[in-house]
Amino acid sequence: MFSPEGPSLRELAVQALSSVERGYDLLAPKFDHSPFRTPDSVLDAVGAALRRTGPFDTGLDLCCGTGAGVGVLAGVCRERVTGVDFSAGMLDVARQRVRPGGPPVSWVRADARALPFAPAFDLVVSFGAFGHFLPRELPGLFAQVRSVLRPGGRFAFPLVAPPRPGSLGYWTLLGFDTVMRVRNALWRPRFVMYYRAFRLGDVRRELTRAGFRVELHALPEFGRRRDGSPRVRLVVAGARLPGQSAPSPVAEVLGRPGQGPS
Q1: % helix / strand / coil in the chain, to the nearest 5?
Q2: How far apart (Å, rounded) are the C-alpha atoms in residues 155 and 61?
Q3: Separation of first and last alpha carbons in the chain
């Protein structure tokens, strides 16, 4: 799971006993050599899917970390790209990345739950950040994203299908969440990282309530599960125009409608 350049167990323990912000500040120099970084295969697949629907003018990477998702935006946006994160350490690493060519990139330190932007973006993406938000925070988070999008703008992020009950992946995630909940019950400040809490049914319901039209795009690079549902979907939430109603049910594009976990 970790390369030799990645964090040691001792460093991970120190980070896990910190706040989310402080923990990522500490992890930042070695973050790209840890399994917490979004794999290049996912970044490439999302980039390919967005190129089929773009190009876009301006893009925002929500909870950008060290900037891997900004590279995706740079490939589909023509005018300007922005990365936003509340960890100063992660942003420091992101600024050091060399990105020849492409649109200008800016970095902003801010909380995703209180974005300091006007409606200025045509595309917002996010990779692997939603486990840091509690379910009750989703309505406010999605409302913030909606508020920074121009009319007709889109909010896109990959969503991996949950592992089958009883599988190794299922028990791994369950064990991880259990450890985090015990840690937060016994230690302050809390470190919110509950990846089993981000469920497709809840996500699309809250996106619709926030004023989005939701489409689900299968990412064919990752194949399908035994029941025929995609292993990885790209959720594309389009900001509804005034007077435009939400479709029902949610459309599934490039996939089989009505399938998948909820």
Answers
A1: 40, 25, 40
A2: 10
A3: 29
Measured between alpha carbons, how far is 3 from 224 in angstroms, rounded to an integer?
29
CA dist 65 and 240 (Å) reads: 28
Averaged over successive runs of 10 residues, the pLDDT of the chain (262 residues) comes to 68 77 82 82 95 92 93 94 94 84 92 94 93 87 96 94 82 81 82 75 91 94 91 90 53 40 31
Q: What separation in angstroms does the CA of 237 have from each of 34, 95, 247?
A: 29, 29, 12
Question: Cα 70 to chain center, whole Å?
Answer: 12
Collect all residues with Cβ–Cβ distance below 8 Å to 200 and sequence separation of at least 6.
159, 233, 260, 261, 262
191: tokens are: 């470190």
How many Å apart are CA 193 and CA 125, to the nearest integer? 19
Q: What is the pTM of this model?
A: 0.85
